[in-house]
Structure formats: structure tokens, C-alpha cells
Amino acid sequence: MSGGTATDVVVAVVQTAPGGDPARNRLTITELAEEAARRGARVAVFPEYSSFFAAELGPAYLDAAESTDGPFVRHLGALADRLDLVIVAGLVAVSPDPARFENLLVAVAPGRGVVATYSKQHLYDAFGGQESRWIVPGPVAVAATFELDGLVFGLQTCYDLRFPEVTRTLVDAGTDVVLMPAEWVRGPLKQHHWTTLLTARALENTVYVAAADHAPPVGVGCSTIIDPTGVALASVGDEVDVMALARVSSARIEAVRRTNPSLALRRYDVVPRRPRRGPSEVAGSDRE
Questions:
Q1: How far apart are CA 36 and CA 20, in angstroms?
Q2: 197, containing H or E segment
Q3: What is the pTM for the complete model shown?
Q4: Beta strand segments in 196-274, E
Q5: Cα three-residue angle 140-184-142, rounded to 5 degrees
Q6: What is the pLDDT of residues 210-260, one digit of tens each?
Q7: Would you name the residues annotated as active-site residues?
């Protein structure tokens, strides 16, 4: 199967509604990955928590956690090999802390197995959520990337979208296309936040962003692929088990950067922040 030239790849973002039955989740991925491959995709992006999802974080996630050589990733590997398709999806993964799990993205490539993993760095302790109670945060300043047909693809997920440094770290590592599985929870203005931030990350970094969310009523939906000028090339609305496809091209990135060389003109680097000082330390000093 051919997705285009050596610097030209068709990407699919797949909008699903994962649930608490891992076997059913794997079947859904199979059916939609097959459709994506039939439509010419070389990369298919599925949402965060694709292996298992329940409405409330809790012990059920610990029971459902798998290793990267468990049933879910083995299934993705066989599917990738059969379809000649790179599959990116969210895994509820075991962690060294028995009381918490790891929110992991895995990228599985045909003939190569797992080519990248990414552990969610910023946990959703916001809007009433408390992910840190159940999830181990990933290491900072780690760029998870893989290459396909001359393009570099980078991984980040969901709440990380609100922290532009994550995307900039990927871009500094050479990323051309940011892949963004998510479970972007519905709520007041949340759809606006989702679409605005996705567009901003593409614009400020002059890269493609391909984001796959949970379908409503859990997520906002609106899975989309955005080009380096902030234009949505393809998107879906609130449907379940649907996909949007678009062609991403290194030539397009190069053309945009000739007109808008913002990366070349920037004067700041991204570095991990120092530990935050406590209130007493702040009170005792009026300068950094």
C-alpha cells in the first residue's frame, strides 16, 4: 500500500468511545484500522485510554492495566503488520507503583513493533479532576518520536495540550506531525479550548497536529487534522466510530516556514522548570 511520495503520508484520526470491555475495544480498533488502511492511511491515531475506559478513575483501571507486551499491544502489532499501518493508541499501563497506573501512548509500526511510547507528563488535576491520585506522571523533557517515509511524528496527549512547552520539545526533536490522542472531557467552553489550543500548537510551531478524541458524551469529539498554517484539513463532529483523513507533507511544512520562520527567529529555549518553592521561601525573598 502506498500513501504517496517519500515525504507525503496519509494520516487518519479515529474518534471512538472506548469502554470497560478490553476485547470489545480491540475489536473496534480492528474494524476502524481496516477502514483507515482501505482509505489509504499509513498512520491511524486512536484516542487516549483506547485499551480501557471507565467514567471514574479508580481500582478498575489498576485491574485493567497491561504491560507493553500485553494483549493490547500484541493485538496492535499483529494488526499493524497485517494492514501495513502505524497505529497509535492510548494504553492503561502497569507502573512500578502498585497503587497507580501509567497513562501511556504506544506507536506500533508494521514489522517493527513498538517504535515509540509516551507517558502523559501533565496530569489532569483541574476542572474537578484528580488524575494524580491514580496515575504516575511521565518524565519531563522527553520527546517520543518515530519516523515514517521521511517525516517525523511526535506523541503527546490530552491535558499536555495546555502546556505549549511539550509540543515545542517535540518540535525541537525534529517533529513534523504531532499526534494527540485525547479524552478531552466535555464541559463549559471545553470544545472551544480544544479547537483553539490545537490550532495554536500547529500555528506557533508550523507543524501538523492530528488529534483523536473520545466521542460525546464523554469527550467533546471534534477530532481533527490541522496544517502548519492553522487550517483544519479534515475533521469530524460528535459521531462515534468515525475518522478524518488528510495528507501531510514535508514540502508544505518547508513552504510555510519560508514565509513564517518563527522557529528560526525565536530567542528562548525550553528547559525543565526548577522545583517550585514553598510559601515560606517565597515570603522570605523578593527576588529570584
A1: 24
A2: helix 190-205
A3: 0.92
A4: 208-212, 224-226, 232-235, 242-249
A5: 15
A6: 999 999 999 999 999 999 999 999 999 999 999 999 999 999 999 999 999
A7: 48, 120, 158
